[in-house]
Design a protein that fits this description.
Length: 250
Amino acid sequence: MNALLSVAGLRKSYGPIEVLKGIDFDVAPGEKIALIGPSGSGKSTCLRCMNFLEKPSAGEIRLDGERIGVRNGHVMSDRQLAPQRAEMGMVFQLFNLWPHLSVTENVAIAARKVRGLPAAEARELALEMLAKVHMTHRADASPLELSGGQQQRVAIARALAQKPKLMLFDEPTSALDPELVQEVLKVMEELAAEGRTMLIVTHEIAFARDIADRVLFLDGGTIVEAGPARQVITAPREARTQAFLNKIRH
Ligand SMILES: Nc1ncnc2c1ncn2[C@@H]1O[C@H](COP(=O)(O)OP(=O)(O)OP(=O)(O)O)[C@@H](O)[C@H]1O
């Protein structure tokens, strides 16, 4: 099967420091991939390169065969990038909802601005997406009245309202109080079960083991080990993966 997302020779430097040192992987349609690894290994940078929130220093990213971020040898402007970014719904560590808009409006605005839907249709789609993340009961609330877990679920609905081909999650539960983590992971698990294509940067190793098809273990800006989630997490082959997993288990 053709890859939905294809990453080849991805490199990223900040000044003299090379943070990504040649990353290659493919994501098949419907596949869930978890990116794990120590702090500073380059996971978030890698994810942010997918939609050119970070500009890669080298390499190619393709979505459905289309080169992301570069046209005729030139890096595209934010305006040119917008339709490509719309195909990748991104969920950040911090949810960044508009405090002056209701929950529904926060989600509908994505459908209106990104997909150009008329207001009534955007609202309908927003309510549909809020149902998916079990937030219908707070549709008219202000984000300020919500817990962090609820806000993150609204942020997931907002990303879904773009109707993306691929969902990108950048440590979506790291900013949450521990008791709020599970409700967000449950929603992600439900999205996974729907057959969505997902690329997830996470420190939740048990979650990665249970919902990902494959795990990529990043260390020092390279993929040190990649394989079926259960194998990489329960029986890692590489010493660096073993050391990382041992460390976080203790
Ligand atoms: N804008 C930037 N300018 C300079 N260095 C940066 C920038 N963004 C990230 N880095 C550096 O790149 C390296 C990789 O960062 P990145 O956030 O991708 O790691 P990570 O694996 O996601 O870590 P964590 O799990 O702690 O979020 C780190 O050393 C970080 O300090």
